[in-house]
């Protein structure tokens, strides 16, 4: 089983794509070496296939990366399931992971993060949590988003090391992470990983 994240950039026309698009491509290239497993299309839509255990962490990284640019945001659906057909492009692939991702994306409405899996109990448990997670992350400012993105992609580093690499004061980093709910978010990410693994056992 895999996870497919489908998303689009909110207010993409307000910002030149040259500001955010290369960053998103660079992130996708770093986490997925197989270019057939991700695609950015129609200018501001994207789809990426990832390991389902890491899907929420990657979705939150995408959120933080996009919101590090002022005025834009992102909404995403996570679909968990099988892949039955692998196309040359991810948008040509098929399977329940793709169907679940596409169907849940159509239902996203006022939320910015939603998931659909073969496990109804898991979905019922986690979607309210994702609504809350979306509510918190929707309010991130660019500085908070940048700090959270770096911290999520370098979870092994201490705050002092993150501050040094971002050329920021340690106190500034600490305040940004607290303001953005970083500890709570990583706890939810870890809970997601644990719960999805339990579904498979």
Count of helices? 8
**Cα-based radius of gyration, to the nearest Å:** 16 Å
Secondary-structure class: alpha+beta
Record the strand order, biggest sheet. 2-3-1-4-5
Shape: globular
N-to-C order of helices and strands: EHEEHEHEHHHHH
Strand content: 15-25%
Helix content: 40-55%
On the 0 to 100 scale, the average pLDDT is 93
Mind summarizing the main beta sheet?
A: 5 strands, mixed
Low-pLDDT residue intervals, each spanning 5 or more residues: none
Total number of β-strand segments? 5
N/C terminus separation: 13 Å
Could you describe the 3D structure shown?
There is one protein chain. This protein has helices spanning 17-31, 55-67, 96-106, 120-138, 142-153, 159-165, 170-179, 182-200; strands spanning 2-10, 38-41, 45-50, 73-81, 113-116. It is of the alpha+beta class and 201 residues long. It has a five-stranded mixed sheet with strand order 2-3-1-4-5. Helix 3 (96-106) links the parallel strand 4 and strand 5. Helix 2 (55-67) packs antiparallel against helix 5 (142-153), helix 5 crosses helix 7 (170-179) and helix 6 crosses helix 7 (170-179). The protein starts with a strand and ends with a helix.
